[in-house]
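batch_manifest entry 22 of 60
target: Heparan-alpha-glucosaminide N-acetyltransferase domain-containing protein
source organism: Pelomonas cellulosilytica
requested by: lab member K.T.
priority: normal
notes from requester: please return tokens only, no post-processing; we will run our own comparison against the previous entry in this batch. if the run fails, retry once and flag.
--- input ---
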Amino acid sequence: MTPRRFASVDALRGAAVAAMLLVNHPGDWGHVYAPLLHAAWHGCTPTDLVFPTFLFIVGVSSALALGPRRDAGAAPGPLRSAVMARGLRIVLLGLLLHALAWWLLQRPEFRVMGVLQRIGICFVAVGLAAVQLRPRGQWALLVGLLAGYGALLQWGGGGLDKPGNLAQRLDTAVLGRFAYEWDPATGVAFDPEGLLSTLGALATTLLGLVCGALLRRGEARGLLLTGMAAALVGWWWSGWLPFNKALWTPSFALWTGGLAAVALAVAHGWIDHLGHRPWGRAFGVNAMAAFAGAWTSSVLLAASGVSGPLYRTVFGPVGVWWGPEAQSLAYALAFVAVWAGIVRVMDRRGWHWKV
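--- output ---
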């Protein structure tokens, strides 16, 4: 049975990838408009919605790809093997991109965790849940994960401040110098894509899995109501357990995943039912190519020394006219536009790179 492909899913995935490129590649990190930055610690900015939306779509796509095969009676063994093999390839790609940056930019330490590593881990876990569990079991896993992770954060000791929280202590003990942040004087480490916080990211992806099943069954109203309910529960829970992307708190997982579900329901009605153009689709069908290509090109520009002169000469007039934040944003928009052109050409020629 061939899984049905929804243009709305490709469009929302593509919008998330384009937003990732926009917020990850400013011209000057010292001058960025506040909405294009992550919250310093507690809180949720528009930028904090980007990665959760992508992970939510990973869950939706798993439901659409694996659900029909499971229901058609496919043997679970080959499905599990395919899921684990693809997840491993995504993790290895992430490590390769980090190795490229570590080598060419002469970074002092190699970072083990990262965006693609987290995507690969969540893809495997949710893919196995899609193969092994029926919808009721998937819901039970989601609720148990949210409750269990919330209990760990609140009662695991150390509070929720950045120094001393449970996730930070685990990253220090296991990742050490290979984390995103590491203080050689104290030995303290922390990674926003670290070990314990991956549980929260997995909850967002699981929410995408159960919402993908609703989409597959044609329950658009159920998808919308589920998203609204998840966002409301997340907002209510934030009164006790604040929104925090770095910790990926359960309230943050529900809030961002719920908003992503609402966005998907709207996109589904607008694109799949009303037939409007799926803006962002080219990014969506070549998400990994765009992310890996943008990372590589950014590293090469920085390592070659081209990015600085390019930023000053080409985008300097924008800074003179409208200020340094506008100049930084203009560079980011141009970067996204270049990659939008690349993936559009790839899509027109039928080149869809899968990891």
